[in-house]
Write a structure and sequence with these properties.
The structure holds 2 protein chains of 2 kinds. The termini of chain A are far apart. By secondary structure, chain A is an alpha+beta fold. Chain A has 16 helices and 19 strands. By secondary structure, chain B is mainly α. Chain B folds into 2 domains: 90 residues, no CATH class; 159 residues, MetI-like (MetI-like fold). The chains are: A alpha+beta, B mainly alpha. At the A-B interface, helix 1, helix 6, helix 12 and strand 16 of A face helix 2, helix 3, helix 6, helix 8 and helix 9 of B. Chain A: One of its GO terms (cellular component) is periplasmic space. Chain A: Keywords: Signal, Transport.
């Protein structure tokens, strides 16, 4: 009677035992050959986990931080940004500004691509012409000011711009300015190039398993000396709790984009810590100054700014990961105004007084549109702002929207009195951010116009005197901070989970140079 | 039989046609892919230029028929995100998803058959209650939660299995359990009720009264006959496996079709969404067809002609 069950039970147990037996064995094997437990001098493989995979192997068609972190290590540019965001020559030996629109560059000798071909002026010309002419490339809009590239000899070239361009060197250090090998690219075409991309950077391509990992290995003949790591693996792990899980078990050395709900888990664990850096992204309120809207009155705009306690937002909701700001140009970006960084104004009584002066003694009602789930804790921040404004007598009609519904409102200029958004600066130059205050860009969105700002902005855009140019940008920011077409809130932080096995310092541009990371 | 097959295959055409339209409308309504591809402060001209380059500023119906026209010649179009043809992107993901689905099915079968038979035999006993109760729990647990819990317990606290990724056999264990548990729960209940029904049939009683051993009665007479509904539910579960794979693959960063589809929907990547849904639809339909054919093998009384 009972035998069939017994038989079944025993068979079942055996299967289970087999399964767990196999797994134990192979997991030990995995540990041995994987990176787990590798420490000190033995550690030659670096593993990084990002929240999204790269989408292409074409460095000029990416426009994402996740992509840039891979390409920066595979390709070279004429210039690069050091850890302090200063522009430094990378492929360039020497350069001169021949006249207002002509720049001459002498390339370094002995730079080779991963297939052994030397890097010449022809390759630079080919790469820059590709990105300045091909409209389908995502980096194209940034490169429209380049007019002509002239090859003088193997290692010398001239870049001619369509007018004085003070930001040229910064652009040449930006993503999209990567040098790709002309001969190889023309030989194999884009499709094959994506399967086996070749650059001249410190790390060369091994394989890309989509939505899983990119594997790179050291390029031993790199012109700047052999790279630090033998192998670098960049994994894509979209689910944040899994990313943290990999970090805690030693599967990865650095995990990017740790969301606030995981901070305690990362900080509470031995062997890993949360490392916070700055970004160029500034959270701000876009204010409608259109005639007829209540926020057309500068007193109302000032009252809104005074009613919001940016420091409290950063300290409470964001747990200190952020810096209150009064300008869209944070420290580290060229043209930033130091008076307006790490600064805020807060005075509820004065806000109430200003509102009364503006004729809103009994309070007023405005609409605030904000995204939910687009930036860390964006919904919570918007709710806190709404209640802060409520204290000053401003009733806020809060519209929290999903990311793409939110972008539809923003892009179609259907924003009402206030709209909360985070804006970053891809060029790390004030010109990039301040364009929002020109008539051309402001029309329809903030409808802000100030003749002086207009003139300062256009003068600065053609000004090759760096010191003067910076002063012009700083002056614009001082005017904006008083007139408030944008009410800036805080600079967003970036959060990385980092294993104690490695030493890592986040950069303002959120790029990661593998060779800057060292073993502890 | 041949006629039946042809009729079933012809049914595919209107189904796929409707699917492409529904998916197209949904993705179209979900928002503008261009604003997701460019940074927030790209100018209107930049956005317009990209829209133009991608053919997104044409009217809706024009876009749809353009898409259909290409589709007839086997071209799903180019992925916005990957700037590559969509269909190969989808097809290269199939092995990973098949691997996960097969392993989950194995987990489900290994769990469900013994548990189902056991609880049918011990009907209303404590063990039966435990198993049926457990199966409710197994069905009710969301994949997402179960996956994260398994990672927490078996990969982070006790580091028995790797947290995520695909590669060796051990990488497969946690995702397969996550995805297989729900299926196992449903199958257990079904095998139980199907067995119960059959155990009360006259021929079982006859077999028992003839003195046939219990083992033989259960396995030769009862179990085989209880298989027909099990085959049905198994094949129905395969489409559940696909939808479950969307979540499970994301949790374990398993590079399969599910993760590709989730990323494509998030990026409003129409070509990839269409190609993925198309491939999934064909898979489900073909599996249903195979199920019908398997019935015939199990029960010769079923005849399709």
């Amino acid at each position: 009677m009972r035998s069939p069950y017994k038989l079944f039970f025993v068979a079942y147990l055996m299967v289970m035992l087999l399964v767990s037996g196999c797994s134990n064995q192979s997991s030990t094997r995995e540990n041995e050959k994987g990176t787990k437990g590798e420490t000190g001098k033995d550690k030659t493989t670096l593993v990084l986990a990002q929240s999204a995979d790269i989408t292409t192997m074409d460095p000029q068609n990416s426009l994402s931080t996740t992509g840039d972190r891979v390409f920066r290590n595979m390709f070279n540019r004429l210039f690069y940004r050091d850890a302090n965001m200063e522009v430094q020559p990378e492929l360039v030996e020497a350069y001169e500004n021949v006249d207002d629109v002509t720049w001459k560059f002498k390339l370094k000798q002995g730079v080779t691509f991963h297939n052994g071909d030397p890097l010449t002026a022809e390759d630079v010309k080919f790469s820059l012409e590709r990105v300045m002419n091909d409209q389908t490339l995502k980096e194209y809009p940034y490169f429209t000011q380049l007019a002509k590239i002239k090859v003088i000899d193997d290692l010398t070239l001239e870049i001619i711009t369509d007018g004085p361009m003070p930001t040229l060197l910064r652009l040449l250090a930006k993503s999209g300015a990567d040098v790709i090998p002309k001969k190889y690219f023309e030989e194999v075409g884009l499709k094959e190039f994506q399967k086996k991309p070749i650059g001249s950077g410190p790390y060369q391509f091994v394989e890309w398993k989509r939505d899983d990992r990119v594997v790179l290995e050291a390029y031993p003949d790199y012109f700047d000396g052999a790279p630090k790591w033998k192998e670098v693996i960049v994994r894509a792990i979209p689910e944040s709790s899994t990313r943290v899980g990999e970090l805690l078990t030693g599967g990865v050395d650095i995990a990017t984009d740790i969301p606030p709900n995981e901070w305690d888990r990362v900080n509470g664990d031995e062997g890993v810590s949360l490392v916070t850096g700055d970004t160029t992204r500034i959270m701000l309120l876009v204010v409608r100054t259109t005639e007829g809207s209540v926020t057309a009155d500068p007193k109302v705009r000032e009252a809104i700014d005074l009613a919001i306690n940016e420091k409290a937002i950063v300290d409470s909701v964001l747990k200190g990961t952020g810096v209150p700001v009064r300008s869209r140009v944070p420290e580290g970006v060229i043209g930033s105004n130091p008076d307006l960084y790490d600064a805020y104004v807060y005075d509820v009584e004065k806000a109430k007084k200003l509102l009364a002066e503006a004729g809103f003694k009994d309070g007023l009602e405005i609409t605030l549109t904000a995204p939910k789930g687009r930036y860390p804790l964006d919904g919570e921040v918007a709710q806190l702002i709404a209640s802060m404004l409520g204290e000053a007598g401003i009733k806020v009609n809060l519209k929290l929207l999903e990311s793409s519904a939110f972008l539809d409102i923003y892009n179609s200029n259907s924003n009402e009195e206030l709209l909360m958004i985070g804006l970053a600066d891809g060029l790390l130059d004030a010109s990039y951010s301040l364009v929002h205050y020109t008539k051309e860009r402001a029309t329809g969105q903030t409808d802000y116009y100030n003749e002086k700002v207009e003139k300062l902005y256009h003068d600065a855009g053609r000004n090759l005197n760096e010191e003067e140019r910076i002063k012009q940008y700083q002056e614009i920011q001082a005017i904006i901070a008083e007139e408030r077409p944008h009410i800036t809130l805080f600079q967003q932080g970036s959060n990385y989970g980092v294993s104690d096995r490695v030493e890592f310092k986040p950069r303002l541009d959120e790029v990661i140079n593998f060779s800057d990371i060292s073993v502890k | 039989m041949k006629k039946y097959l042809i009729r079933r295959l012809l049914q595919l055409i209107p189904v796929l046609f409707i699917i492409t339209f529904v998916v197209f409308v949904l993705v179209y309504l979900a928002g503008d892919p261009v604003s997701l591809m460019l940074p927030e402060d790209a100018s209107e001209e930049d956005r317009e230029a990209l829209r133009e380059a991608l053919g997104l500023n044409e009217p809706f119906l024009y876009q749809y028929f353009h898409f259909l026209g290409d589709l007839i010649s086997g071209d799903f179009g180019t992925s916005f995100r990957y700037s590559q043809e969509a269909l190969p992107l989808v097809l290269e993901r199939l092995p990973a998803t098949f691997e996960l689905a097969a392993a989950s099915m194995l987990v489900a079968i290994v769990l469900a058959i013994p548990l189902g038979i056991f609880s049918a035999r011990k009907r209303n006993s404590f063990v039966d209650l435990f198993i049926t109760g457990g199966s409710v729990l197994g069905k009710a647990m969301p994949n997402f939660w179960l996956g994260i819990m398994l990672i927490l317990m078996l990969a982070v606290n006790y580091q028995i299995f790797p947290v995520s990724g695909r590669g060796t056999f051990v990488h497969l264990v946690l995702p397969a359990i996550t995805l297989g548990t729900g299926v196992a729960a449903e199958m257990t209940r079904l095998i139980r009720s199907s067995m119960l029904e059959i155990l009360h049939q006259d021929y079982i009683r006859t077999a028992k009264s003839k003195g046939v051993s219990d083992t033989l009665v259960i396995f030769k007479h009862a179990f085989r006959n209880s298989l027909i509904p099990v085959v049905t539910i198994t094949s129905l579960q395969i489409s559940h496996l696909v939808s479950g794979a969307l979540i499970t693959e994301t949790v374990f960063s398993w590079p399969g079709l599910g993760q590709l589809l989730v990323q494509a929907v998030n990026g409003r990547d129409m070509a990839v969404v269409q190609a993925a849904v198309f491939v999934i639809a064909i898979l489900v339909i073909v599996i249903n067809l195979i199920t019908d054919l398997v019935y015939r093998l199990l029960d010769p009384r079923i005849n399709y002609s």
